[in-house]
Design a protein that fits this description.
Blueprint (H helix, E strand, L loop, with lengths): L2 H8 L1 H25 L6 H12 L2 H36 L10 H4 L1 H20 L5 H4 L10 H9 L2 H28 L6 H30 L8
The chain binds protoporphyrin IX containing FE.
């Protein structure tokens, strides 16, 4: 067994936890995206969906608690592995390093930190309504929380719109490496054609997610998604 493998096996628990929580967060991203794409269907669709979600408080809170736990564990294990990785570097380098590093794999910590900052801002902006309380407190004609107009008005601010777009580009970079890396940690082949397929699939999947997420603020900015006040 090489020194590199020694490092890997001592960290297998952390890696498995990071991979599982990462895949769970990707699952949330897909579900959240499906809900968000209703912005193209207009105010009624979005506000009806928001009311529907809140009519299942137990499900909503279970998902929120699972999300918070996944975020905390994902960040904790990433810090733990980064520290171990740096400590192991002097002996691991110059030995057996067959894996080509990519921009995405080299910038995982940076892209992860930007995504974390984005999520904290996003929660303050659209969930807690701290950034623009007057937009967060809007009510539609049927007396429902006006999530549609809150989101459109938010993205009409060029700084907020740009931050969302930049954050989605970094999120794309993060999950393009994270997806295939998690799948390999959890036992999918790390060799040959399967590994190449997994890497390409991860990149295409991340690009698709990012393009669809970006389409929302970009469409607001281009006037394709207007306010319905
Ligand atoms: C264009 C992109 C996005 C839009 C339009 C959007 C929209 C929203 C809205 C409207 C809410 C509040 C829902 C409500 O309180 O009724 C929300 C909550 C949330 N969003 Fe996003 N979102 C976007 C991207 C993202 C991304 C990329 C992430 C993760 C990296 C994310 C994570 C969350 C989380 C964790 C919540 C809180 C969920 C909860 O309260 O249970 N969102 N989003």
């Amino acid at each position: 067994m090489t020194k590199h493998n020694n490092f890997s096996s001592s960290s297998i628990g952390s890696k498995t936890l990071m991979a599982t929580t990462g895949l769970f967060l990707i699952f949330f991203l897909v579900v959240h995206l499906c809900g968000n794409l209703q912005m193209f269907a207009g105010q009624d669709a979005v506000n009806t969906y928001a009311v529907l979600l809140k009519s299942f408080p137990k499900l909503l809170w279970s998902m929120r608690i699972a999300l918070i736990a996944a975020f905390v564990l994902h960040i904790y294990t990433s810090i733990q592995l980064t520290i171990k990785n740096r400590a192991a570097r002097p002996i691991a380098y110059g030995q057996n390093q067959p894996v080509r590093s990519t921009l995405a794999s080299r910038t995982m910590l940076l892209s992860g930190l930007v995504v974390l900052a984005f999520v904290l801002f996003h929660l303050a902006h659209l969930t807690l309504g701290w950034i623009s309380p007057e937009q967060a407190n809007l009510i539609d004609a049927q007396g429902r929380h006006d999530v549609y107009n809150m989101t459109v008005l938010g993205f009409q601010n060029i700084y907020i719109c740009s931050f969302y777009i930049v954050a989605q580009i970094l999120l794309c970079l993060h999950i393009s490496h994270g997806f295939s890396s998690s799948a390999q940690t959890l036992g999918l082949s790390a060799h040959g054609r399967c590994a190449v397929f997994l890497r390409r699939f991860g990149v295409c999947f991340a690009l698709l997610i990012a393009i669809l997420y970006i389409s929302i603020p970009a469409s607001v900015w281009l006037g394709i998604i207007p306010t319905e006040l």
